[in-house]
Design goal:
Sortase_D_2; membrane; 4 helices; transmembrane helix; single chain; hydrolase; Sortase, Chain: A; alpha+beta; Sortase; eight-stranded mixed β-barrel; about 300 residues
Length: about 300
C-alpha cells in the first residue's frame, strides 16, 4: 500500500538529499537557516512593538506638559521681602569688604612702624634709659581686634586723651626657626603690643645676668605676623636678643599652655639662671588660652667693634 507522505509531513523526495524540501522552498540543513516568519496577529497583540510604548510615553508627557503654565506667562514679581533680603546682603558684603580692606591697611601701618622701631634699636651701643629714641603714635590708631588688658598687666596705666604716646624699643628679638625679627619694646601695654613685642616691666630686666624676663606678643591672624607662629618653636630652638652692645643666645627648654588666670604666679617665679619667657594667645577663634615658651640663656657675645691702633 502506497503511503500518503503529505499527511505525515514528509515528501517523496525526502530521501534524496539533493532534492530536500519542496520545489518552492530551498533546502535548509540547520535550524538557524530557517526563514523568518511574520508574527501572527495574536502575537502582535500580546507583544506590541517598542515604538508603541515610546509613543504612549510621549503622549503622557505631552498631556502632563499641557497643564503647566507657559514659560512666557511665568514672570518673576518683585516682593517687599525681596528688597529686605537684597538690602541685608548688600550690607553684609559692604561690611566684609570694609573689614578686609581696613584690616589690611591697619596691618601695613603696624608693620611700617614696627620696622622703624626695629631700626632704632641701639644694637652696638649701651642703652641709655634716659635717652631712648622712639616713635610717637596715636593711641586710637591701628587697634588690634580683641585686644584687652590681661588680668595681670593693667597696672593702673592710662593714656591721655588726644595726646600721642611714645613707643620706645629696647632690643631686637630674632627666632630663625620661624623667620621672626621684631623690636622689643619697653612696655607691654595695649598700644605697645600693636607694634611689636612688649617687655613686662615687673619682670627681670632684659639685659641682666639672672631672673625671668617676660615678653608678650599678639597672635595675629596673618601668618608670621608677631607671635602668630610661636607655637611652631620647638624644644632646642635658638632665640636671640640683640641690644646693649651684645648678642644674647637662648635655647628653648620648656613649653606650657595655661589659662590666663594661671599666668600670675608663673611670671613671678624666681630663678638663679637667666631665662626668657615668651607669651601669646592660642586656641583660635576664642584665644582663651596662653602659650608660654621658656628659653634659657646659653651664650653672650660682645658686639663691640675692635679698635684699630
Amino acid at each position: 500500500m502506497k503511503k500518503n507522505n503529505h499527511l505525515n509531513g514528509t515528501n517523496d523526495n525526502s530521501n534524496n538529499p539533493q532534492n530536500f524540501g519542496t520545489p518552492n522552498q530551498p533546502p535548509y540543513n540547520t535550524p538557524y537557516q530557517q526563514p523568518f516568519q511574520q508574527p501572527q496577529a495574536w502575537q502582535q497583540a500580546a507583544y506590541p512593538p517598542r515604538q508603541n510604548f515610546i509613543a504612549a510615553d510621549q503622549r503622557v508627557s505631552l498631556e502632563r506638559d499641557h497643564h503647566k503654565p507657559s514659560k512666557s506667562k511665568r514672570r518673576w514679581q518683585f516682593k517687599w521681602y525681596d528688597a529686605i533680603i537684597l538690602l541685608v546682603a548688600l550690607i553684609m558684603f559692604s561690611s566684609a569688604a570694609y573689614y578686609f580692606i581696613s584690616s589690611r591697611a591697619t596691618r601695613e601701618k603696624q608693620k611700617k612702624i614696627s620696622s622703624e622701631l626695629y631700626d632704632l634699636v641701639p644694637v652696638e651701643q649701651q642703652v641709655d634709659p634716659n635717652n631712648r629714641q622712639g616713635i610717637y603714635v596715636d593711641p586710637d590708631a591701628n587697634k588690634v581686634a580683641g585686644e584687652q588688658w590681661e588680668v595681670f598687666s593693667n597696672n593702673g596705666e592710662s593714656y591721655p586723651q588726644g595726646k600721642k604716646v611714645l613707643i620706645q624699643p629696647i632690643g631686637r628679638l630674632q627666632i630663625s626657626s620661624i623667620d621672626l625679627s621684631l623690636p622689643i619694646l619697653s612696655k607691654a601695654g595695649l598700644i605697645e603690643l600693636r607694634y611689636g613685642i612688649g617687655h613686662h616691666q615687673t619682670s627681670a630686666p632684659l639685659y641682666g645676668d639672672s631672673g625671668l624676663s617676660v615678653l608678650f606678643g599678639h597672635h595675629m591672624i596673618e601668618k608670621g605676623h608677631y607671635f602668630n607662629r610661636l607655637d611652631e618653636v620647638e624644644i632646642g630652638a635658638e632665640v636671640k636678643v640683640l641690644g646693649n652692645n651684645k648678642e644674647y643666645t637662648y635655647k628653648v627648654d620648656k613649653r606650657l599652655i595655661v589659662q590666663p588666670q594661671e599666668i600670675v604666679p608663673l611670671i613671678k617665679e624666681k630663678t638663679a639662671d637667666k631665662y626668657l619667657l615668651m607669651i601669646t594667645c592660642v586656641n583660635p577663634p576664642s584665644f582663651d588660652q596662653r602659650l608660654l615658651v621658656y628659653a634659657k640663656l646659653t651664650d653672650v657675645k660682645d658686639l663691640t667693634s675692635p679698635k684699630s691702633n
